[in-house]
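mind reviewing both lines:
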Amino acid sequence: MNASFEEKSVWIQLGAMVLGLGTYFVIAVGMLAAGQRDMSAFAALFIVSVGAMILLMSVAYALVLFAGKPEGRDERDRLIAWKSEHRSSWIIAAGVLGAVSCMTLGVENVWTANLLLLSLMVSEVAGFVLQIVYYRRGV
C-alpha cells in the first residue's frame, strides 16, 4: 500500500478498534445473554480489550516505523481528520441521547454502559472509514 504515515495510522487504529472492541462486544453479548449483570465483569473484559488494542497498535506502529520514516502531518491530513470527525460525531450524540433515555426509563446500568460504549465505537469506526475514503478518493 502506497500510503502516507497518517493513512497507515488510520488503518492501524481501525483494525485495532474493530478487533479489540469487536471482540469485547461478541463476548459481552454472550455474557448478557447468559444473564451476567455484574458491571465489574464487563469492566475487566473492557480493560483486557483495551490492552489488546494497545498491544496491536504498538506492534503495528513499530512495523510501520521500521519500514520507513514518517512524514509530517500536513493541512490535507488535518482537513481529512476534521471532516471525518464532523460527519461521524452525530453517532455518539445519538448514543448519548439513547443512554439518557435508558436512564430515565430505568434500564439496567449494564445495558446503558454498553450502549454508550457501542455508540463510541461505531462513531470512531465510521470516522476512520471516512478518513480512509477521503485519503483514497480525495477530500
In short: The helical segments are 5-33, 39-67, 75-104, 109-137.
